[in-house]
From TrEMBL, chains A, B, C, D:
Residues 41-60 bind DNA. The keyword Transcription applies. PANTHER family: HTH-TYPE TRANSCRIPTIONAL REGULATOR BETI, HTH-TYPE TRANSCRIPTIONAL REGULATOR RUTR. PROSITE patterns: HTH_TETR_1 (PS01081), HTH_TETR_2 (PS50977). Residues 18-78 form the HTH tetR-type domain. This is TetR family transcriptional regulator. It holds the Pfam family TetR_N. Signal peptide: none annotated. It comes from Saccharopolyspora erythraea (Streptomyces erythraeus).
Amino acid sequence: MRSDSGSVGQEGLSFIAEARREQIKKAAIDTIVELGYAKASLAQIAKRAGISKGVISYHFAGKDELMEKLVVEFYVAGAHFMLPHLEAETTARGVLLRYIEKNISYIGENRHAIVAISDILLNFRDADGSLHFGHDGRNELVEAVAQILREGQEKGEFGDFDPVVMGSSIRASIDMVSAALHADPDADTAHYARELTALFDRATRKDPS
Amino acid sequence: MRSDSGSVGQEGLSFIAEARREQIKKAAIDTIVELGYAKASLAQIAKRAGISKGVISYHFAGKDELMEKLVVEFYVAGAHFMLPHLEAETTARGVLLRYIEKNISYIGENRHAIVAISDILLNFRDADGSLHFGHDGRNELVEAVAQILREGQEKGEFGDFDPVVMGSSIRASIDMVSAALHADPDADTAHYARELTALFDRATRKDPS
Amino acid sequence: MRSDSGSVGQEGLSFIAEARREQIKKAAIDTIVELGYAKASLAQIAKRAGISKGVISYHFAGKDELMEKLVVEFYVAGAHFMLPHLEAETTARGVLLRYIEKNISYIGENRHAIVAISDILLNFRDADGSLHFGHDGRNELVEAVAQILREGQEKGEFGDFDPVVMGSSIRASIDMVSAALHADPDADTAHYARELTALFDRATRKDPS
Amino acid sequence: MRSDSGSVGQEGLSFIAEARREQIKKAAIDTIVELGYAKASLAQIAKRAGISKGVISYHFAGKDELMEKLVVEFYVAGAHFMLPHLEAETTARGVLLRYIEKNISYIGENRHAIVAISDILLNFRDADGSLHFGHDGRNELVEAVAQILREGQEKGEFGDFDPVVMGSSIRASIDMVSAALHADPDADTAHYARELTALFDRATRKDPS
DNA sequence: TATGAATGAGCGTTCATTCAT
DNA sequence: TATGAATGAACGCTCATTCAT
């Protein structure tokens, strides 16, 4: 059912309920973009969705579940978008450059939502105060890049460097594009993609000794 | 000590008051590190300082002033730390690599505070909802790096790239070290410094064509 | 009842909400009568209403709105009560004496609320420190009386005096009845009405020269 | 020393202490005039006096004592001012008209302080919520006027009216002049004195039947 | 005497959550 | 399903008062 449709909806929910959930998620993103995570209260989200506060509690176990869903679905959709492009590449260098390029494309095409997602990532904390999307999630993303780099080093395509540090730098630079879009929503993402692919192509290249 | 040093303490305050202010600022940083900015209430800060809530209001005009002080004093101290090293360099490349290295040193030596400072930067908002330390502050830092890069390009030390994108990538990579320290407080910052200077040395180098 | 009457209730609110608002307004008046404006906190009002503090914030935008509503609705209702009686009079003297009499009647019938209303008038201040119901409101009431007096002077019904000073004295004397009721809730308002109409009938009469 | 000087200061206090007390009282009046009773905190009063908050607590048992002193001393001084003029009159009518005239004079000469005094009278409450200067004080003033009126009625100088109601009206009208001064600090008090003496002369006169 | 420092209670307000309808 | 109503805790802040120095 779900698995072949690409849908991120939940099993066993009526269309009406599913539509409501989507409406609420959209309103939540709009609210966070506008007011920031800290002031994005359920009341504000409900107001923007044109519904009553209680509805949100009805459809989601709580504010936390709503936030979690927003982030996870954003990343799942991102993976769906990027994977085909990466699988078409044959070299590690090709995969890396395409990864950077398409990741920035995805950010550019979701420049509205990305602002909210970043805000949630940095602020959503569990009851004990620890970041809900802490280092595990972050490490996972870095590790995916590091793996590409390691493979390239083994194949002799890349030079000598710490793949984890390089991977972290790449991720940080990609995420920086989100921040740049926040500052200037009309920024040219293709320009960032060109510059960053060139930057990290040089940075990962074998020394021309 | 205070009066003749580069200390950021305020003139005209008694030693007792100054000590209390320092104690409160330290407690504020500890609290933010532990609970995050959003949950770092005056009550929590006071609890960690072992004082009553009202004391904070007595020594600071309000929570906002306290937060502002934390950030500004951190950056002022950072500039004090870095400037002498940069002025000792004669080439743009030297300045850039030293900038990266010493910035990471400063982060490493303040690995505790940096977590709180980052959190404040990303979350402290004015009454109108806009980030108090918004893009102006961020751009200022990027622009300082971009200026180094531009000079190097003019002198023929660096290759061809957009200095603003490169500068943003450098800043993002340096800030990434803070995040890495948050995940692993015992991380080897010198290793990060070596890897990142090498990375951006390659990335900014003239094409060997 | 509500919908077709001159009621001051708001349209578009459910009966439950309207009932709660009335209950809160009543509790607010009771609280102010008992403790005075300065100590009439939302907590005290809620306590007397037997509800939680938050309910007041739910039904009113804030304490200020609640206070404003109390005063405005009291005056609107007062005007509704008095106007028909004044319109039935044909002479300025008749209007004046009826104004005094019926105003005191209204006070007598609302002897409880009037205490709170007076307290609000004298103490409710805006954020800038100025009285919310300042001299403009007061002058309006005085001016209404002064206008009656001026007309009577023009028609030759009254003697020679400054209508603003006389009007102020009349208003002050009427308001004094409120204070008297505060001291002795069982005071005979009809007696005050008789004495004050006679007093100002003599005071405004043409000299019998 | 003190007892024959007419001073209202306290026995056994050094000149320094007495001067401090006067300074604090003056600052208190200024503060209440400017901010209103409710916002006239000890901190504000101390600020205007150029001293520390604790000094007030040192010289006065508490805020309440300070407020009490301000009011009582104002009335004592008022009696000092008025008595000689009243004792010079030989008829009840003369005493009444002089009372009104000189009372308004006193208000006019203390138009600054009177604003604060009125504010205290209306807002200073005891711990149980009751007005500290409640009906007893008010009644005392009214009763003084009523006594003049009764004597005049017994001597046949005045007509037939309830002396308490008439006395209340007179007091209310005099106090109204304070309010008028609050609205317009440059108001012509002599004009008010002329109009109100004439008004109550007519109102108390024997019917010319 | 006078001070600056500290306290602790109370303020108005916001908010995630619960629940009867 | 959806709603409006209510809760109760926490928030930043103010203040009269206390007290060691």
